[in-house]
């Protein structure tokens, strides 16, 4: 398992965030930004997500939780999310072909998915887990 991989989770689109970013915009939306961060544990899993506080923010600390965002999404239908794995920092500068692995996925309302990432310096694979 890959311990210590930094990961960001971002809500890209839903009826709550009508004009959301594409994966290339890295979080700039016209709606409220909902970005979380975490790090994989010794089993390569994420146990908890914390609100992401951008270094360019005005100093205000985000006070929302993932549960808050999921509650806000109730009744809005499907949502689109992105996971960004900082594989460059994990492997070391210049020691991986993929310095960031980005996985965009869709979640139907009320569903809960695992999104495993199988990772090596020069390849990766992902799938929808149960």
Number of strands: 7
Main beta sheet: strand number and arrangement? Answer: 5 strands, antiparallel
Domains, number: 1
- What is the N-to-C order of secondary-structure elements (H for helix, E for strand)? EEEHEHEEE
Q: N-to-C terminal Cα separation, in Å?
A: 18 Å
Strand content: 25-35%
Give a written overview of the molecule.
InterPro entries: Transthyretin/HIU_hydrolase_d (IPR023416), Transthyretin/HIU_hydrolase_sf (IPR036817), Transthyretin_CS (IPR023419). One of its GO terms (biological process) is purine nucleobase metabolic process. Keywords: Hydrolase. This protein is mainly beta and 130 residues long. It has a single domain (6-126), classed as Immunoglobulin-like. The chain has 2 helices and 7 strands, in the order E-E-E-H-E-H-E-E-E. The chain has helices spanning 66-72, 87-91, and strands at 6-13, 35-39, 50-51, 79-85, 101-107, 117-120, 123-126. The strands form 2 sheets. The protein has a 5-stranded antiparallel β-sheet with strand order 3-2-1-4-5. A two-stranded antiparallel ribbon has the order 6-7. The longest helix is centred in the middle third of the chain and has 7 residues, at 66-72.
